[in-house]
Every structure is written in C-alpha cells, then in structure tokens.
Amino acid sequence: MLLLLCFGLLFVGVNAEAKEPMERQCLCKTEFQPCLVGWEPLAEDCGKKCSQHVTKMGGSFEKVRACVMAEKARFYKGVACVHREFGKVCADEPGAEVPRRFPETLELAAVREVTRQLTNAGLLSEATKMFSAPARKAIACGKDCAKQTKCYKIKCSLKLPSDNDIIKTVIKCGQEVGVDEPVAKKFCGCLVDAGIEQLKPFCPKIVFTPEP
C-alpha cells in the first residue's frame, strides 16, 4: 500500500508540470447516459460472477447483497448530489476535447483518503491485517469484470475536476445524504451478520475524521 501511495504522489507531481493529454469528450446521448443507466445491472452481474470470493470470506452472497440493497436509496441520493455538484460532464455534439482521465489515478486518490481515515482512527495496521487474500481477490474480480464492459472500453473522457476534488465531492455528498459513523457501523455490522466475521472487531471502531 505504501508503494502504491508513493507512486500516486509521484504521478501527481509529474503531471502537475506536464501538459495534460487531451481526449474527446464523451457524448451525452449515446455514451454517458446509457452507461449511467446501465451501472446497476452491471454491478449485479459482476457481483454474481465474483460471489465465490464472498463465500471464501465466510459470507453469504445473498445476505451481503441485502446489506447493499438496504442502502440503495441513500446511494442514489448521493449520486444525484455528485451529479449536481459536477454539472454537465458530457457533450451534446462531437468535437469537444477535455483532459484525459485515468481510472488508476482516481483509485489512488481514493486509497489515499481511506488510508488517511484509517490512520487517524488508529486502524490502519488492523485493517491491513484484516484485508485478506479473498477480499483482495473479490475486489480484483469486480474490477476485471467491469473492464470487460463496453462502457469501460469507450475512448472518451468526461469534464471532471481533479481526482482529489472528486473524492472531496463524494465525501461531501455522502455527508449530505447521511453517511455518518452510525450508518457506517450499522452497514459494517450487517456484513458481519452476513458472515464476514473478520469485520467484527473493526466495526465499533469506525471513526470519520474531517480533512485537515
């Protein structure tokens, strides 16, 4: 994880001085909107394809799915908030160009934020030990599944703020829709009840810390 974070910082430092590569902006009607609508069946399909990894962690896929679905309304409100904050990110007509975005750098920004939260809560070491091989394989499986989709392979980018600003916006919107410590602990407890026993000592210790 440390190596990943160091690479992320290096990447940000290099690209701060280099000219950003440009890419055509995704079209709203034929690219962005169909992919936006299609994320839920994709998540369902990838979840089923990767369910064996949940089983290896001791969990019931259907029960884990029920935990996720219980927060579906809150998730949709959060997505609507993010859309409102970003404004129009796609183009109505072809021809526009925007800085090319890389999913890997957004992932690094997310890892940095999660690491910061865990460190401030004194849970980084415990979380690292708890992050078992089946859990890593489950995440890798989900990512590999998503990469096989048509939407992932479309060669275009959206008009978005920096990766760090995206993470800040997601956190802000999460707070607006009520994603707080009690909600996070309840969700964590639901996963424990679904069979993911590794989370049991971790759930009561969840703490959200504001960004400095």
Low-confidence stretches: 1-18
Count of separate structural domains: 1
Order of helices and strands: HEHHHHHEHHHHHH
Portion of residues within helices: 55-70%
Radius of gyration from the CA trace?
Answer: 18 Å
Q: Which structural class should the secondary elements be placed in?
A: mainly alpha
Q: What is the number of helices?
A: 12
Report strand %: under 5%
Signal peptide: 1-16
Keywords: Signal
Layout of helices and strands:
Layout: H1 2-17, E1 22-24, H2 28-37, H3 39-49, H4 51-56, H5 61-70, H6 72-86, E2 97-99, H7 103-120, H8 124-130, H9 133-147, H10 150-153, H11 163-176, H12 181-193
Antiparallel strand pairs: 1-2
What would your notes on this structure say?
The structure is a single chain. By secondary structure, this protein is mainly alpha-helical. The chain has one domain. Helix content is 66%, strand content 3%. Helix 1 (2-17) crosses helix 7 (103-120) and helix 6 crosses helix 11. The protein is globular and about 55 Å long. The chain starts with a helix and ends in a 19-residue tail after the last helix. The model is unreliable at 1-18 (pLDDT under 50). Residues 1-16 form the signal peptide.
